[in-house]
Write a structure and sequence with these properties.
heterodimer, A: two-stranded antiparallel ribbon, 26 helices, globular, B: mainly alpha, 21 helices
Chain lengths: 623, 486
């Protein structure tokens, strides 16, 4: 059946890519954790590895066949009148890049996790959830219908819930998991309403039909199109942790570290970027909605960069850095750097997975300590995580010739072409400067200075190998550009953006200046900023940044507290009070009349006389 | 003819079960199982034989009281077939779920279960309004006894409340049926309770409005919709597990069925004038039911309120009265049958083991009973409308259809999906997650019997979520016959 030399046949294997992780999940589910860990690891990581191999095979066949979009109809999901969504997988350059990242980076994370989770009681449960996560994400990017996309969309929400709350015996983790699910579901609901609207207006939810239908039915600037695009953006900001639904991501750190890597690099948070890139025609028709995307990204990357600067938990620093990097992707989509957004999505997947996995190795070595102020001087004892962290941070900071440099600089330079170019570039470049600052703070605090906690390196080859591969990708991943999306996205791929002149040099210099400042401040301590940060004026600001700019507090006060209070108040159901009142009235009437039944003749005679008198009186008055 | 056999088998099976207790205390439940299996087998052959030209799988028409134009007219179309199948299946589940729970008066218990089922099957197939009403009452009384005799600590109050709500609304139904027949008689000179004839009766507009309201009240009390829902939490909480399974799984569906079969087809114009208030009640039920579910601390009460929320989608969908929303409502009914029955079984299983339903006294049960944890997780996820499971198909189609009719109410109901996530995950965390409760010494996990029932129901939900077309194909011709434009 498997004839790899025939491209058409290799493409037919597409369904196996999501099916393999699903199979892994099902195997681990029905065996109820009774398999030995070796077998679990083999199933858990193996299915993803196989899926990655098939992705490679399918990708090669796709390119050989002339990069023509390919769809594979699996079955009719439902057919109600004109609403006939099918479970169809659709592959073009965009989905190819996505499934490559998901299975490739996903496999490395799984491989790493086989070591990281060793000895954990929930080993099998962990890999079951992870496999399901990858399956859901694959359905999200392969779905040819927005309903199938929505299936994957909700699926990744579910899996993030399961994995963030993996150690659910701690209530805190359970709350973090629920928060992630509920907050993203707010966005999902906006998106669902967008789908209802799309179906009402265009009569279909098939993505390609929607895109062509949108162009045919709406004029540029159409209000309907803007509304739909904004509702979809609502879904995207939820999943991708952008303003104003970003608050779940920092708390999502409650899960085991490989989960963070998976959420931040290969799955979940990139979903929103994918959605907007996939539905790009809607945003092209609505300049307002597209600019809203840019503004959301810009605001998020700005706020998140400041927040990352003052965090003390190594994973929270990385979480806020993800938020800001996804912000760059949204910003890119908003300013029309479509391909650069996907390019940055890919390079970010490499270096963010690298950073999280390296952080995981560090955390494991220092006995699950995550506070960077209790680390220090680790570079000699943890060479592989150290090198990984440095390479990953360099790429994150977009230092020249790393992968992040190619993608991020492209975004910044393209923003200059936008109408509001100057100040857009200014804010984004300033945040890029901050990125280097918080990255260098992280590196210097964790790996240099005095040794605070004695590390105990527990990494085996299965943990170090993914780090090495990802480190190579973080450096070289940007060298070859990204031609695959050229056919799909409206800007015709990244090569279409030719930039030269002074701004190229200025943009490239920003992180270098940041590096210099970072080294001086955090490395050499030549400029001691402690008296500045501890000053009375800086403390409130620091606190404000540390708490993520007060969003959590705001939601707590304005939404959650009233919701809880009303729930407590109305626990006994106010509606039932009406019926209870009827019962009380009937009961008291009953008692009243029962009281009147005294059995005394005198009492009855008096009452009869009184009654008769009343009747006569009424008759007289009325007459 | 065979349809009467089905109903007769359930009635007589109940009697047989009662008498068989004299032979052995365990005999009644075996009798029930045997009868239900036979009935399911019969239903399967009917289904496989396919429908007649009129789309009926089985029918029966014998005069009963010719003087009043009442006849024993039954018919089973695709919708009835689906609901009868659900009834028989959940009947088996109810018997299985009470296998060890009920130890006293096992014969009478099985009798009441079987008679409830017989009443429900009659309701789902009766095509004569008078006969329909008789069965409507028949299913109520054994249910009352199930709660009042085998219920929990506050059973008398709950049973009485259930009885009063249903009885008073039943009175409205009876009056409406009698008036309808009389009005038709005074117009056409033909005294009949035949559904097909009355459907085409020319009722004056004002009268139709009142009659529609009479039917509507009876059915939304049963559904139940806010503000007529408050009997449900009490009845559910106090009922034995089998009672809750039947109540949530099937009895609520009789209300939904009544809306689809009678309210709109009999009085289409009046019902369409009433569209907005009805859909409003549906949307309010979705949100308010979900919100009330969140505020509960009793496992069963929480699930009971979640039923109000889920059935709100049905009300919303029925009155949207288009193909998408109606077929969605049908899928929602079936999916809710499975998911709520499973959650009530779980609640029952926990109460049987811990002697409490209070979530505050649970916490950390996963460590004690991981299988129960996984099963609860599954049904909680189904309840919050995860795509790939039946509830999603139902709710999505309802919302998609309702959106074409009223955007605002659909958006309100869609917010209910967020609330569903809030209460569902809260239920999961308060019961199975969190630190282990040291006061709980031991808690046996699901045994094979319990686990297999759960797996079957879970599989049904997955099937419904991935391949809902079987159900959709059965309901489509019915909905077309009811006059919905396809």
């Amino acid at each position: 059946m498997l004839q790899a030399n025939s491209p058409a046949n290799a493409m037919d294997l597409l369904w196996l890519i999501p099916a393999l992780p699903l199979t892994g999940f099902l195997i681990l589910l029905v065996t109820e954790g009774r398999l030995p860990n070796v077998v679990v690891a083999f199933v858990g990581a193996g299915t993803i590895g196989l899926a990655a191999l098939i992705t490679l095979l399918v990708g090669v066949a796709y390119v050989d066949a002339g990069s023509e979009p390919y769809s594979q109809i699996l079955w009719q999901w439902m057919a109600v009148g004109d609403f006939t969504p099918r479970i169809t997988l659709y592959m073009d350059g965009l989905s190819l890049v996505m499934i490559g990242v998901i299975t490739g980076v996903g496999f490395l994370i799984h491989l790493y996790a086989t070591g990281y989770m060793a000895g954990d009681a929930g080993y099998s449960r962990f890999f079951a959830y992870m496999n399901l996560f990858v399956f859901a994400m694959l359905m999200l990017v392969l779905g040819d219908n927005l309903l199938v996309l929505y299936l994957g969309w909700e699926g990744v929400g579910l899996c993030s819930y399961l994995l963030i709350g993996f150690y659910h015996d701690d209530l805190k983790n359970g709350y973090a998991a629920r928060k992630a699910f509920v907050v993203t579901r707010v966005g999902d609901t906006a998106m669902a309403i967008g789908l209802f609207l799309l179906y009402r207006e265009l009569g279909t939810l098939e993505i390609q039909a929607v895109l062509s239908g949108a162009q045919a039915s709406w004029e540029s600037g159409s209000q309907m199109c803007t509304l739909i695009a904004l509702l979809l953006l609502g879904g995207a900001v939820g999943k991708s942790a952008q303003l104003p639904l970003q608050t779940w991501l920092p708390d999502a750190m409650a899960g085991p570290t490989p989960v963070s890597a998976l959420i931040h690099a290969a799955t979940m948070v990139t979903a929103g970027v994918y959605l907007i890139a996939r539905m790009h025609d809607l945003y092209l028709l609505s300049a307002d909605a597209q600019f809203a995307v840019a503004l959301v990204g810009l605001a998020t990357l700005f706020i998140a960069s400041f927040t990352a600067l003052v965090q003390t938990d190594i994973k929270r620093i990385l979480a806020y850095s993800t938020m800001s990097q996804i912000g760059y992707m949204f910003f890119a989509l908003g300013v029309g750097a479509w391909s650069a957004a996907i390019f940055h999505l890919m390079t970010h997947a490499f270096f963010k997975a690298l950073l999280f996995l390296a952080a995981g190795s560090v955390i494991l070595a220092v006995h699950h300590e995550q506070d960077i102020s209790r680390m220090g001087g680790l570079w000699r004892r943890l060479p592989v995580p150290f090198a990984s962290m440095v390479i990953g941070s360099a790429a994150l900071a977009a230092l020249p010739f790393t992968s992040g440099y190619y993608s991020k600089d492209l975004i910044l330079l393209t923003s200059l072409d936008h109408a509001g170019g100057g100040w857009l570039w200014g804010i984004a470049a300033f945040a890029a400067f901050l990125t280097v600052l918080y990255s260098s703070r992280l590196i210097f605090r964790v790996f240099f200075g005095e040794v605070v906690t004695q590390p105990d390196d527990k990494s085996g080859l299965n943990m170090n190998l993914p780090l090495i591969v990802l480190a190579v990708a973080s450096v070289a991943g940007g060298w070859f550009g990204l031609s695959a999306v050229a056919e799909v996205l409206p800007d015709g791929g990244i090569d279409a953006h030719e930039h030269d002149g002074i701004m190229v040099w200025v943009t490239a210099a920003v992180p270098l200046v940041g590096l210099l400042v970072g080294c001086l401040v955090f490395g050499t301590r030549r400029f001691d900023i402690t008296h500045l940060t501890r000053s009375a004026a800086a403390q409130p600001l620091r606190k404000f940044w540390f708490g993520g700019w007060g969003f959590d507090t705001f939601y707590q006060r304005v939404l959650i507290d009233p919701f809880e209070a009303l729930a407590r108040l109305n626990k006994n159901d106010g509606v039932d009070a009406i019926y209870r009142a009827i019962v009380v009235v009937a009961g008291s009437l009953n008692r009243m009349f029962a009281l009147s039944q005294t059995g005394k003749l005198r009492w009855y005679a008096t009452n009869m006389a009184l009654g008769l008198a009343t009747v006569v009186l009424i008759a007289v008055v009325l007459a | 003819m065979s349809l009467s056999l089905l109903i007769f088998a359930l009635f007589s099976g109940g009697l047989l079960a009662w008498f068989s207790e004299r032979l052995h205390p365990a005999a009644p439940r075996w009798v029930s199982v045997a009868v239900l299996f036979a009935a399911t087998g019969y239903l399967t052959t009917v289904w496989l034989a396919g429908p007649s030209a009129e789309g009926l799988y089985a029918e029966l028409n014998v005069p009963w009281i010719p003087a009043f134009g009442i006849s024993l007219k039954f018919a089973m179309d695709g919708l009835s077939l689906l609901l009868v199948a659900l009834t028989l299946f959940l009947g088996l589940v109810a018997v299985a779920s009470s296998w060890t729970e009920i130890e006293s008066r096992t014969g009478a218990f099985q009798f009441n279960i079987m008679w409830t089922l017989a009443g429900v099957v009659g309701v789902f197939t009766a095509m004569d309004l008078f006969v329909f009403f008789v069965f409507w009452e028949v299913m109520l009384i054994p249910m009352y006894f199930l709660i009042a005799i085998w219920g929990h600590e506050n059973r008398r109050y709950a049973a009485m409340k259930f009885f009063l709500f249903t009885q008073i609304s039943g009175l409205a139904l009876l009056l409406a049926i009698l008036t309808l027949a009389y009005v038709n008689y005074s117009i056409s000179g033909l005294l009949t309770f035949d559904y097909e004839i009355l459907r085409h009766a020319e009722i004056p507009e004002t009268t139709a409005r009142w009659l529609m309201l009479g039917f509507f009240i009876a059915f939304v009390v049963k559904l139940p919709a806010v503000p007529f829902h408050t009997w449900l939490p009490d009845a559910h909480t106090q009922a034995p597990t089998a009672g809750s399974v039947l109540l949530a799984g099937i009895l609520l569906k009789t209300g939904a069925y009544g809306l689809i079969r009678f309210v709109v087809p009999l009085f289409e114009e009046a019902a369409m004038d009433f569209r907005f208030p009805a859909m409003l009640l549906g949307a309010i039920s979705v949100v308010y039911g979900g919100y009330m579910a969140y505020s509960q601390s009793d496992f069963k009460r929480l699930v009971a309120y979640s039923s109000v929320s889920h059935m709100g989608f049905v009300l919303l969908g029925v009155f949207a009265w288009n193909q998408l929303a109606l077929q969605g409502a049908v899928v929602q009914m079936i999916a809710h049958g499975f998911s709520s029955a499973a959650l009530f079984m779980l609640a029952g299983a926990i109460q049987h083991r811990l002697h409490t339903r209070e979530l505050g006294q649970m916490s950390g049960l996963w460590a004690r009973a991981p299988r129960m944890g996984v099963v609860t997780l599954f049904f909680v996820i189904a309840s919050l409308g995860m795509p790939g499971l039946g509830t999603f198909v139902g709710e999505f189609l309802v919302l998609l259809g309702a959106f074409q009719v009223n955007v605002t109410l659909t958006v309100v109901a869609a917010i209910g999906i967020i609330v569903a996530a809030v209460y569902s995950l809260s239920l999961m965390q308060r019961s199975f997650q969190g630190p282990e409760n040291p006061d709980i010494a031991a808690m046996p996990d699901f045994d094979v019997r319990e686990l297999s029932v759960m797996i079957i129901m879970a599989a049904a939900l997955v099937w419904l979520g991935i391949f809902p077309q079987g159900v959709l194909d059965l309901s489509e011709p019915v909905i077309a016959a009811l006059g919905v434009a396809l």
